[in-house]
Amino acid sequence: MSAREAILAKARRALTDVPDVEPVLDVEVVRPVPDRSLPHAQVVDLFDERVADYRAVVERADPGTAAARVAGALAGRPPLAGSGPLRILVPPGFPAGLVPDDVEVVPDGPDVAVSELDRCDGVLSTAAVGIAETGTIILDHGPGQGRRAATLVPDLHVCVIRADQVVAGVPEAVAALDPARPHTWISGPSATSDIELDRVEGVHGPRTLHVVIVS
């Protein structure tokens, strides 16, 4: 008896007392219909809630407090270098007034190698669209958003999104995006699970996502 036959024989013996179950066919799947009548303020509240569900840090701000919220997202983090200021990757077009004074700015660009991105303590970015129903942030890598690698390699991603960029659902988001541009859809910090469902964060993207919603 081959190893394959031995394994199948054991499986058959283990299932001898298990009754046959007829497959259930033609089951109607009922999906909730999103409420498109919510006021925009409630849509933003839902976005806040859903982003936080993914274990991201979410803060609200206005134009006068946004810089302080960004600085607070970086405060207290130990630098990879062991000492000195944090090295923060800043893509072209990110608002200069939101960049803290006490960090070492690493300007992003196509000539910045991935090894250099890996030495950065974090990255700042804006966003293109936020989806309330799914808690998803979409980057189209326009001004302030950087290259795809810029927001995937550093361990911390601080994303600033305006409240007026938040839409209710995926259809509205897709309609607002330019299909000719590359898109990165972010739902919380990078996370995966092994066969025992042990959650591991930071494997294929930032370990920490900090979102500042500016109204």
Automatic annotation (TrEMBL):
Pfam families: LUD_dom. Residues 116-214 form the LUD domain. SUPFAM superfamilies: NagB/RpiA/CoA transferase-like. It comes from the Bacteria. This is L-lactate dehydrogenase complex protein LldG. It comes from Pseudonocardia alni.
